[in-house]
Amino acid sequence: MEIYKGALNGSPDDLNIILRVIGKRQDSSDCMSIVFDRPQGLSFNAGDWLDIRFIDPDLAVGRTFSFASAPTEADLQITFRIGRTPFKRRLEAVAAGEALLITQYGSNGFLLDRGSPAVFLAGGVGIAPFRSMIKDVIDHRDQVPMTLIHVNRTDDAPFKEELLGWRDQHARLVVNHVTSAVKGRLTIEPLRGLIAHPRGSAPVFYVAGPPGFVTATTGLLARIGVGSNEIKRDSFTGY
């Protein structure tokens, strides 16, 4: 891996792995993805996170993102909600060939249990780690039943067409898009109807998105009898 050797204002523990931009893509009206050349030797698991920052000393504080790309893919991808902070505006403006830095990466335990059916509940840009997990399962041809419930404010959801294409090709993948601007917030009865898993099996529930979504959805799951040890959470702060 290529390491940046210049002077920086970050932590002495920063890895400073150079990350070069390949391109960017508008995935929805309010979400964008940046695609990077994958540093040689960088290994991660679906569901992992990475901290990235700019070399520019005026943006010395980085941000944490989930890997939206799967470990099986050649390039790295992050997906974020477009915002007004200086960091977000700078990220939206990156150009091909530009260098950023990975300062840290790893796991917070939000990893797929391949021995149990999975129910993914994503709020908005919380879809990012689930894209990674689903793609990884498909590429490894694992027989994990997966149900995705993506709650987005509008029908213009990131990765929507890609996910529906995967659903049509893989019988063990169920994809549900919920437009909250039309149907309102997810409530208990609609949630019951959307959860699909084989009879007699106990799924693991994965909840990712803004803190309010994670808290509310975890509460709904508890009210329908899902134990806390059956739920994994990934709360996206700073969005």
Judged by helices, strands and strand pairing, the structural class is alpha/beta
Rounded average pLDDT:
89
Q: What's the arrangement of strands in the largest beta sheet? A: 4-3-6-1-2-5
| Tally of helical runs | 6
Shape: globular
- Write down the Rg: 18 Å
Q: Gap between N and C termini, in Å?
A: 30 Å
Helix content: 10-25%
Taken as a percent bin, the fraction of beta residues is 25-35%
The major beta sheet can be summarized as: 6 strands, antiparallel
- Count of DSSP E strands? 11
Along the chain, the helix and strand elements come as EEEEEHEEHEHEHHEHE
Briefly, what is this?
The chain is an alpha/beta fold. It is built from six helices and eleven strands.
General description of the model:
This protein has 239 residues and is an alpha/beta fold. The chain is 23% helix and 31% strand. It has 6 helices and 11 strands. The protein has helices at 86-92, 128-140, 160-169, 180-183, 188-194, 211-223, and strands at residues 17-26, 31-37, 49-54, 63-66, 75-81, 99-106, 118-123, 146-152, 173-179, 204-209, 231-235. The strands form 2 sheets. It has a 6-stranded antiparallel sheet with strand order 4-3-6-1-2-5, covered by helices on one side. The longest helix is centred in the middle third of the chain and has 13 residues, at 128-140. The chain is globular and about 55 Å long. The chain starts with 16 loop residues before the first strand and ends with a strand.
Give structural attributes.
239 residues, alpha/beta, five-stranded parallel beta sheet, single chain, six-stranded antiparallel beta sheet, 11 strands, 31% strand
